[in-house]
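Summary for the lay section of the report: proteins are chains of building blocks that fold into shapes. Here we show the chain for Berberine bridge enzyme-like 23 and then a coded description of the shape we predicted for it.
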Amino acid sequence: MDPYGGRMNEISESEIPFPHRKGNLYNIQYFIQWEDEGVGPSKRHIEWIRRVYKHMTPYVSHSPRTAYLNYRDLDLGRNDNENTTYSQAARWGLKYYKNNFRRLAIVKGEVDPYNFFAFEQSIPPLTLNEGKRATQ
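The coded shape description reads as follows.
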């Protein structure tokens, strides 16, 4: 559990990419680790952590459920490949970045238009189209 509040409440959601500040008292990190090999143990452990998520649902943010990128949650969604569109990625990206997601995708389009730096939940590039921002 990471404590929030205090000075964090003074930073607006749009000032930096991480928007989950004002009104949040804590950030909870769920994780599980195992050394057993094979599909069976993996399934069992993943099902267990999903039950923990379900149990905690009434006590955490919702509509939408939010997340912190460095505590990656692939159940929220993931990029299918390097050609994931902004609209597709917005399903999970808005949970991490709220309204900052679009702005970050535009920056990604300027500095990494070919999406070289891609991973399961990387921000896809949103590029300019004839002087206008693409809306995909």
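Put simply, here is one thing we learned. The mean pLDDT is 85.
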